[in-house]
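Note to self: keep these together.
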Amino acid sequence: MRHAVVTGASRGIGKSITEKLLRENYRVTGTRRGSEFPAQFQASDHFTGIQVDLADFDQIEKMLKPVLLESEKVPDILVNNAGIFIDADFSSDDAEWLDVWDRTMNVNLRSAGILSKWFINAHIQNGSEGIIINIASRAAYRGDTQEYAAYAASKGGMAAFTKSIARDFSKQGVVAYTVAPGFIETDMARESVEILGAEALTKGSAFDEITQPEEVANLVEFLAKGEVKHMSGSTLHINGGSYMV
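Structure:
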């Protein structure tokens, strides 16, 4: 049974990814910070839940390093999905603006970096193959409004990080992909509605509806199969046609 680690598994895209992987008979280790895991996850023999604040390196090292680096069998797939989406206007106080910037980078990019490092090193040491799937955002490619500049920058960094992994480690058996969703029907999207308005979620889209998280989960599960290794380093865009590459 293949084993996937999914960060931010209790809600939103991470929840849908976890549901899909469990249905497809994967073993899943999921993380959460605040919200509880759904009851069906907790009832599954194939699911292990870990509470960890991905902004806190000490917690990451204590709770997740053993899973990725010291397990008898290294997980096959790492899905860096967890992220925060916090607004900070350029007119705000410098200290407040930098606090949002630092928290966003720590959760969205720094944690994904160290988890990937441990995952890669374990696979190289074992001579095994692994798959990293980084959930970025369309904001990495088309930017975002200035209030969410830190979020866009963190996701742009994640896409560049994925390419760097792919360039050096694909030949050693670890491939990496970026998935870049647009607005997805999640709690995060509903928070955006409060700030930007409902029309912003489908503005410029080829559809009159918001993309469902199940579609992102289907894409992630396809990549997790390991059937398109020579797409390593690629970004797969799923954004309702709001921009096309």
